[in-house]
Amino acid sequence: MQRPDADTPVPGENGGTFSQKDRLAACLALHEDLKERKARREVQEERVFLEFIRVNRDRINEFPLLDIEQKGLIDILLRRGADHPGQAFIKGLIGEFIAELNKYGKALAVGAEAEAEAHLKELVGAEALLVKCVQGAVYACSLVKDNVSDSIILHFGESALEKIEEITERLEFDETWWRACLDTFVRERIAAGHAGIVARERYTVFREGGFAGVRLPFDEVLATLRGTDKVIQKTRVQSAYEDREENEEGRRVVAFLAAFLASGQNPVTEAGASPSTVRHLARIAAMDPAGTEYAGAATPETEDDSARYDFLAAQVTALASGAALVLSVAARDFDRAIRDFDARERRLILSLAGHFERARLERLVPLILEFAYLQVLRDMGREEGGKVVIRTVRARRAVAAEVMALADPDGGGLTRIGRRRLFETEPGRPDMLAWKPRTLEEMNALCAVLQLDEAVAARIAALWETAPFRVEFLVAVNLEAVAKVTSNPAHRVAEILARFGVAPRRVVRPQAAGPAATQTSPAVAGQTPGPPAGANQGEKAP
Known about the structure:
Elements: H1 20-36, H2 41-56, H3 67-80, H4 85-109, H5 113-156, H6 160-170, H7 175-199, E1 204-208, E2 211-217, H8 219-222, H9 236-243, H10 248-263, H11 267-270, H12 275-286, H13 289-296, H14 303-337, H15 343-353, H16 358-381, E3 388-399, H17 400-404, H18 416-422, E4 423-425, E5 432-435, H19 440-450, H20 454-465, E6 469-478, H21 479-483, H22 489-498, H23 515-520
Antiparallel strand pairs: 1-2, 2-6, 3-5, 3-6, 4-5
């Protein structure tokens, strides 16, 4: 690939503390020292790359200031992404840079100025591409951390920022960073929330069929969150990313870069990136002047134009490769941090997390809290095996004010009768209403019976589609299974529910297994009764 002249400025690079001469001299001096000490190739590559980062850091926008953040970033680029094509691409560039550096140094040593000048052109090009790899990685890493931080602040309040900063200052951006965030803002919150439900006896004891147990309201946990309603200021990186889709020109640039990345042989396509991932990487590449210049470049007409055009394309590939590598490693680390969750829940969380976009993470936090609560309950009942069923029960709800807004005093709106057919009050939540229909088919049938205006019916359908859920956790003890292994079922059920903090005095006394039990329970003697009504609603993805 042809390179630009050594004195040609690279798009988006404004120089820094080190001049080009100083940068290359520093890397060359280190390389010569490593050769004299007969350092292994891997050691040479890593040490030269670290020196490269040091002398080029002022050419990299938003390069992290903390040593631990810098170390984490370099570990991703050099070691922790071995299964992603982006790492091989970056290591190839490092090897190319060192090879040209070696040739350049030898030419200087023997006074071959013309030969040194030729190698300098290649060296400058390799240096610029390495800078773009690091730049893409920095942008991707910053976006993930900034978006996670904002989603936590939104739900847990401004005081959470201090804890986030403490985690970032203490831990590298790997599995331990994600796990610390989960422990601090999720698991500790769930433990405190459950303790509050138990202490205030906000649970409901039930007896249904062949089961007895409790319902634990998730609202009680969410009510402890002290989020913020203030506008969370975007960082420069977040603003630059979102600005790419703010106008027609920005969208054109992103679409152009996405088409380029998807069309050729590069680390992005080699990794099998989905169209959404390619577009995400294209937006990151578009944040750099090289990306926008490439998207706006005219068809090259001269050899110099072609060299310049090819070099811009190479920089876009480098930007996307660095970003893709970070995104892949971050997703893997996040997956490992949530490995204690149920496999289905993990898949759902990863799917909804996407590329860790801000809006996605803001919606994901309550779901992670929900799944974490389920995990806590499973751990409490694990020793009881099949005697305990733990499920999530969901019920659609609607904001009361939005339902009232459907009324039209001039006719044609949702009448009071219609409102009563579709909704019912929700105890303890005057701001919410509960949907009476349980399925979309039931809701549509009711709307047809009410002969609603098309516009009103469309608004009701929209409320259904965007409806929040009331979530309860159901802990049900299989009475027949308990009766088979103890002579005192009532006492044993009380012991089991006590594991979950339920006061024994509130437990409904179960009937012993036998003829009397089959008269009051739909379960057939000798068979395991089915879970209570609604107990399986949590099996479907929210």
